[in-house]
Amino acid sequence: MAKELDAYRAGLKRDFISNRGYWSEQWDSVLELSPDYFEAYTNLSSEPWKTGTLLPKVKEFVYIAIDSATTHLYNTGTRIHIANALRHGATRDELVEVLMIASVLGIHTMTDSLPIMTDVFAAAGKDLKLSERKLSGEQEAIKADFIKNRGFWPPVFEPMLHFAPGYFKAYTDLSSAPWKLGALEPKVRELLYVAIDASTTHLYNQGTRTHMTNAVKYGATAEEIMEVLMLTSCIGVHTITESVPILMEELARHEAARAQEKVR
User: Fold this and answer.
1) Does some domain include residue 193?
2) Number of compact structural domains in the chain
3) What is the pLDDT of residues 104-121, one digit of tens each?
4) Alpha helices in 73-185 (DSSP H)
């Protein structure tokens, strides 16, 4: 049973619910241990909710994307924000699409490593000379399909198209799935790519730049992009939400052990 809150803590809880629209029991221990920290976090995390630039459900999509991304996998947050998104009117297909978008993050193994591979071969006197290589009909079709489905072409994919066309076709099909589902508008999709690339658990600047550019092409404003970054930047609080319950358990265990020693 949760402890009865004093006036200060009760006020902080009301403020959080008013600003963020929900309450989770994960905050109970944080509020108990350090109301000053909780107040500071509430103020920080509430700012993007005060500006009102993005729809509430889109804000929740950002949280879902960064929490479910393979670089973070914070299931507690994913569950909370899926529930919040549903409350704000999100559909099943929209939520599936958010998860599809987050799931392609692994391709950055390729996008970060292929330039290195190219440089290594050049340094070894075995320049791959990609600009001189002619694409086969199959490769041309794969490239055209990517551009048709995704709306852009990143040159960093050229080595993959040349040396692993089968893999690249399979990736094209995978990454195009949310674009074919069509539950989210293109601008929102690109903003979600910005969020997972800009997250502190990933910080993939090349992708952030590419998808910001795409988002602007689809009509995103500076205020919308800033709101996505504000939402994403609060991910550090998961140090607290994951670790404070452990602290509380260990404190209770320690105090129980000390009490037992006194009895002896």
Assistant:
1) yes
2) 1
3) 999 999 999 999 999 999
4) 75-87, 92-103, 108-123, 137-150, 158-163, 165-181
